[in-house]
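The instructor's notes for this session suggest beginning with a concrete chain rather than abstract definitions. Hand out the sequence below and ask the class to guess, before any prediction is shown, which regions might be ordered.
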Amino acid sequence: MDEPPRKRMVRPPRGGDGARQPAQRLKTAKQRTPSSQAWLERQLNDPFVAEAKARGYRSRAAFKLIELNDKLRLIRRGMSVIDLGCAPGGWLQVLAERGAGRVVGVDLLATDPVSGVEILQGDFTDPAVADRVFAQLGGAPDLVLSDMAPNTTGHRQTDHLRIVGLIETATDFAVRTLKPGGVFVAKAFQGGETAEVIAALKRDFADVRTLKPKASRTESSEVYFVARGFRGGR
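After discussion, reveal the predicted structure:
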C-alpha cells in the first residue's frame, strides 16, 4: 500500500523579516489574456520563485528535488545520475551541489551548461541519443530522474493520459538501465490511471512512495513517484 504523504519538511521561503509579504499585482494587464495575467501574478507572489532567483536556481522546481532528497536521501556522493527532461537545469544544479558524481541531463530543448554536468539535446527514446547518454555516463545509472510533463491541451482527460504515457516511457527507460538497488523518481498527476503505473513500479522496485513536496503548488494535482530498491533488469 502506498504511504500517504507525511509532514512536509521544507518550509515555504518567507520575506527577510519573517513576515508574510503582501500580495503583489501587475500594474497593467494590457495585451494579456486572463490566464496569462493570473499566471504572472502567481509567479510574482510565489515565495519559491523569489527564493530560486535569490539562490541562483533556474526554476522553483529545484526545491522539489531538495525536499525529496532531504526526506529520502536519494542523492549520494559519487553516484551516477540521468536526468530525463532536464531543461532548464534546476535539478542538474541540485545534483551538482549535492555531490553526485557522473550526471547526464537530456532534453528536447537546449539547456544552458551546468558545471560538472554533461547535457545532451535530443529524444532519450531515440536509441542513438540513449547510446550517447550511456557513453557520457560511463555505465549504468544509480538514479534516474524525470520531471517531465507534456504540452497540455486543456482537456483534462487527454492531458492526464499524456502524462501517464510519459511516465510509462520514463519507467521503461529506468528499468532497462538502472543498476540493481537503483532509484527512480518521476513526476505524476493524481488520477485513476496512475494506479496501474504504481502497480508496475512495485513489480520492479522494493519500495514505492507517492509524495507531494511543499514546493508543488497546493492547487496542483502534481505528485512524485519515488521507487527505490530496483530488483534488476527485465
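Then share the key points. Confidence is low (pLDDT under 50) at residues 1-12, 14-23, 35-41. Residues 56-230 form a domain with the Rossmann fold fold (CATH 3.40.50.150).
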